[in-house]
Design brief:
Length: 168
């Protein structure tokens, strides 16, 4: 392969990678956007690809804000806020402090019931006739305490009273 054919093949390869014409590559080199080829006309393909896409996505302006990008970002943020407010109104989202308080209440009630089991069931256990009867008494007491944890703690009045309107 001659030197001229090697240069053309490098230029064609770069053209194919970037998806632009060989003439456009030459224009971008003239504009200083792509690095110039070395003396034999061989392009540094990785550097050219990096420079091309850097220029493509930043429009060559590091410090200036792109108005289209900023408007799109603002529109997305607004759409996300509206979607969030809608999910709150639909009852799909709850306030974290409400959830935390209700969980703490449930666990506290269960703890209190479990700690009260010895005092509550000692008289019944002392008159029990056999170990199976004792086991049944304790199982019923523990089941009662644990069932409190599976009862729903949130209802419509809690979520409606503290509804976030999105205005704050």
């Amino acid at each position: 392969m001659s030197e001229l054919e090697a240069v053309k093949s490098k230029l064609n390869l770069l053209s194919e990678i970037l998806g632009i014409s060989t003439r456009r590559i030459q224009q971008l080199v003239e504009d200083g956007i792509l690095p110039a080829p070395d003396k034999q006309g061989a392009y540094d393909i990785p550097a050219c690809v990096q420079s091309f896409y850097y220029n493509e996505f930043t429009n060559g302006e590091d410090e200036e804000l792109d108005g289209r990008y900023e408007r799109a970002r603002k529109a997305k943020a607004e759409a996300d806020r509206i979607e969030y407010d809608l999910k709150i109104k639909q009852g799909l989202y709850l306030q974290a402090d409400l959830v935390q308080n209700e969980i703490e209440k449930s666990i506290g009630n269960c703890r209190a019931k479990l700690l009260a089991l010895p005092r509550k069931f000692t008289p019944q256990i002392s008159v029990a006739q056999n170990p199976n009867e004792i086991e049944e008494i304790l199982t019923n007491g523990i089941t009662e305490a644990l069932n409190e944890l599976i009862e729903p703690v949130f209802n419509d009045t809690i979520t409606r009273d503290t509804e976030n309107t999105g205005d704050n």
